[in-house]
Design brief:
With 63 residues, the protein is an alpha+beta fold. The chain has a single domain, classed as Alpha-Beta Plaits. Helix content is 22%, strand content 16%. Strands 2-1-3 form a 3-stranded antiparallel β-sheet, with helices on one face. Bound molecules: iron/sulfur cluster. The site of iron/sulfur cluster has 14 residues, from α1.
């Protein structure tokens, strides 16, 4: 699975990193500036939780 973050849509709520810190990392401004990132199988459930709770729907998961 891959994470794709729409950096323009991210509003810096930080919910992704709060709920799934093993997957999502915020930059020093509190925004998710991750690019396309491969997720290890053990982190897939956490990646889904973070994506489903992003208020801006900025995170897309691709199988
Ligand atoms: S939850 Fe969404 S809007 Fe908030 S920091 Fe993460 S990607 Fe950005």
């Amino acid at each position: 699975m891959k994470i794709i973050v729409d950096n323009d849509s991210c509003s810096g709520h930080g919910r992704c990193a709060a709920l799934a810190p093993s997957v999502y990392v915020l930059d020093d401004r509190g925004y998710n500036s991750m690019n396309e990132t491969e997720v290890s199988p053990e982190n897939e459930a956490a990646a889904r939780v973070g994506a489903n709770n992003c208020p801006e729907r900025a995170i897309t998961l691709v199988d």
